[in-house]
Amino acid sequence: LSMHRSRNVFAASSSSSSVAIYDLERHNAAPDVLGWPNSVDTINAVAFNQVETSVLAACGLDRSIVLFDLRTSMPLTRTTLNFACNAISWNPMEAFNFAVGSEDHNIYIFDMRKFDRALNVLKDHVASVMSVEFSPTGQELVSGSYDRTIRLWNRDQGHSRDIYHTKRMQRVFSTMFTPDSKYVLSGSDDGNVRLWRTNASERSGVKSARHRQALEYNNALIERFSHMPEVRRIKRHRHIPTVVKKAGEIKAQELKSIKRREENERRHTKKQFQKRRSEREKMVLAREK
């Protein structure tokens, strides 16, 4: 379900491979139905563009991402990935960029104008990404995963800057930022909604002038000496649950094995004469217009 930013309109996904557009001002009118020809799989998620509000994105179980134009009620383009996507979110500050959470544990950021490769790949989760959302500033993302963790990301970096978890929190299916970007909300399989700070060490409330100066001084010191190994290690250290850490080690070994196998195959076949594909290009299988 996704609400239009300025109109009383919302889009709903369905199991019939189509997206229904409901206008709340026309109670008796039938919804407009959008879909890609010959598509038969369920639509997982839909999202309205927050800047170009006539553009709607949808992802389905057939591993496709489809863009629709509400002005013509027609699909614009369709891209097929290696894995299905569970969530999609538009950047509220950049009209052409959006992020998708994939079944291969990664988050991909795309530019709708150049769909043959991703702008960035965010890696750290060890299970399917079930939710992804941009912050109101468009500079950060929050994601929830089947591995029972929440991660915060800088848009331009490939790994998470923070990880949140509790013993009782189960699989995370929904995450979002508050409008001031200071807090994150999460909904998980244990039936609870949790509120988190986007900066775990930051405290709410009015700060005195002396306190603000001390914080600024400490941040300046950390920034100045962040190149030193010990300072960098302390700054980057995060406590990770044993299960997630072990799964990450297993995943790293599997990826290393796959890469070694691909290199051996490349060395002894005609693939050695072909141009290498980057990680941002490998996951795009096909594009249709």
From TrEMBL:
<keyword id="KW-0853">WD repeat</keyword>
<dbReference type="GO" id="GO:0032040">
    <property type="term" value="C:small-subunit processome"/>
</dbReference>
<feature type="repeat" description="WD">
    <location>
        <begin position="165"/>
        <end position="206"/>
    </location>
</feature>
<dbReference type="Pfam" id="PF04158">
    <property type="entry name" value="Sof1"/>
</dbReference>
<feature type="domain" description="Sof1-like protein">
    <location>
        <begin position="199"/>
        <end position="284"/>
    </location>
</feature>
<protein>
    <recommendedName>
        <fullName>Sof1-like protein domain-containing protein</fullName>
    </recommendedName>
</protein>
<dbReference type="InterPro" id="IPR007287">
    <property type="entry name" value="Sof1"/>
</dbReference>
<dbReference type="InterPro" id="IPR001680">
    <property type="entry name" value="WD40_rpt"/>
</dbReference>
<feature type="compositionally biased region" description="Basic and acidic residues">
    <location>
        <begin position="254"/>
        <end position="266"/>
    </location>
</feature>
<dbReference type="InterPro" id="IPR036322">
    <property type="entry name" value="WD40_repeat_dom_sf"/>
</dbReference>
<dbReference type="InterPro" id="IPR015943">
    <property type="entry name" value="WD40/YVTN_repeat-like_dom_sf"/>
</dbReference>
<dbReference type="Pfam" id="PF00400">
    <property type="entry name" value="WD40"/>
</dbReference>
<keyword id="KW-0687">Ribonucleoprotein</keyword>
<dbReference type="GO" id="GO:0000462">
    <property type="term" value="P:maturation of SSU-rRNA from tricistronic rRNA transcript (SSU-rRNA, 5.8S rRNA, LSU-rRNA)"/>
</dbReference>
<comment type="similarity">
    <text>Belongs to the WD repeat DCAF13/WDSOF1 family.</text>
</comment>
<feature type="repeat" description="WD">
    <location>
        <begin position="122"/>
        <end position="154"/>
    </location>
</feature>
<dbReference type="InterPro" id="IPR020472">
    <property type="entry name" value="WD40_PAC1"/>
</dbReference>
<feature type="compositionally biased region" description="Basic and acidic residues">
    <location>
        <begin position="276"/>
        <end position="289"/>
    </location>
</feature>
<dbReference type="InterPro" id="IPR051733">
    <property type="entry name" value="WD_repeat_DCAF13/WDSOF1"/>
</dbReference>
<keyword id="KW-0539">Nucleus</keyword>
<feature type="region of interest" description="Disordered">
    <location>
        <begin position="254"/>
        <end position="289"/>
    </location>
</feature>
<keyword id="KW-0677">Repeat</keyword>
